[in-house]
Every structure is written in C-alpha cells, then in structure tokens.
Write a structure and sequence with these properties.
The chain is of the alpha/beta class and 188 residues long. The chain folds into 2 domains: 12-41; 44-186, NAD(P)-binding Rossmann-like Domain (Rossmann fold, 3-Layer(aba) Sandwich). It is 41% helix and 13% strand. Helix 2 packs parallel to helix 4. The mean pLDDT is 93.
C-alpha cells in the first residue's frame, strides 16, 4: 500500500495524470506557504471514496458502475479488471478530515482512505449485487507478466497517531449510497 513517504510519481508527460499531478502540486504549495508564512498546514492526502455526491459519469469506476446499475445497463469495466483500489465511505471521510484538521501535526501528511483493497472486477461484482438486472463486461484482457496497478493507501500513520479507522464496510457504503441516490432522485 502507498505510504505517506512514497516518492514515486505518475508520468508527468501523460495528460491522463493531470489530476494526480494537480494534487501533488497542491501539497507542495501548501508546504511552501506554511514555511513562508508560519501558518499551519496539515495535508490530508485523499484516495478514493463512495457516497451520495460521487460523480456517476466521470472517471471514477465506482460511480460509473453505480450509474450503470441504476440504469439497468451493462457494468462496463474499461480495463482488464485487475487494478486494485479501495473506497472509504463519505461519512467516514468527514470524521477523518475533522480529526486531521483538529489533531494533525503541522506540515505532516496523512493518507485518507480505506486500506481494504479489491480488484476492479470484484468492485463491479459488489455493485452488481445491488442491481441483478445488470451484467458485467470486461473490455480488456490482462497482459501476461504484468502486475496489476494498485492505488491503495497505507493508513497506519492515521491509525497510530490519530486513532482513525475504517468504520463503514464497502458493502454497507454501497447499500447506503445507492439508497441515498434513489431517495434524492425520487424527491426531485
């Protein structure tokens, strides 16, 4: 899992990495500003989340899968399904951010997310359980001798220093998110 001290970076010349690079630059600017002004800066390094206001038609797999299910469509996995991800429920996210804001140390980085990983295929299957009319289609085949991509945080620092933990399981988060989306659509 990715620790706070991990120094690897995405390929800066690939435009698909603009989001990741933007987050890295924001961290750097926060530390520079803290050094120059003396204003405290605590960095909550956010990974992946699920909840009511998650975009359903963007580049987030979990949102796209939920959207496919809500529309009784095929759940398309655009990759080979092997990348590993993890998801923290939005209510847990709020607890984490408030705790980091109040108790985090100046100029420290804290990973925010779940350390419970699953493949994109397993994620699609977990979403599909809530939408029995939807099927799953994987658009690519795994490449031989290639390790799956992994975007999962180590949250040991947040656990040990701030007492944080994952409260809501992915299954509970999916159930709550889907119910909230359906409720918000019905109340419009």
């Amino acid at each position: 899992n990715v620790t706070e001290g991990y120094l690897g970076a995405p390929n800066i010349s690939d435009v698909k990495n603009a989001y990741s690079e933007g987050k890295r630059i924001a961290e750097l600017l926060g530390v520079i500003n803290a050094n120059e002004t003396g204003i405290e800066f605590v960095n909550a390094r956010c990974f992946a989340f699920v909840g009511l206001y998650l975009p359903l038609t963007s580049h987030f797999a979990i949102g796209n899968f939920i959207n496919n299910g809500l529309n009784n469509e095929v759940i398309f996995i655009k990759s080979d399904g092997t990348p590993k991800r993890s998801y923290l429920y939005m209510a847990d996210l709020v607890i984490w951010l408030l705790t980091i804001l109040i108790h985090g140390k100046n100029k420290e980085v804290y990973n925010v997310g779940s350390d419970i990983s699953l493949s994109i295929t397993k994620l699609a299957q977990a979403v599909q359980l809530h939408f029995p009319k939807s099927s799953i289609e994987i658009l690519q085949k795994p490449l031989p001798d290639r390790l799956p991509e992994r975007y999962v945080p180590s949250i040991e620092k947040a656990k040990n220093e701030l007492g944080l933990k994952v409260i809501t399981s992915l299954d509970q988060a999916l159930e709550k998110t889907i119910k909230q989306i359906l409720h918000s659509r019905n109340s419009d």
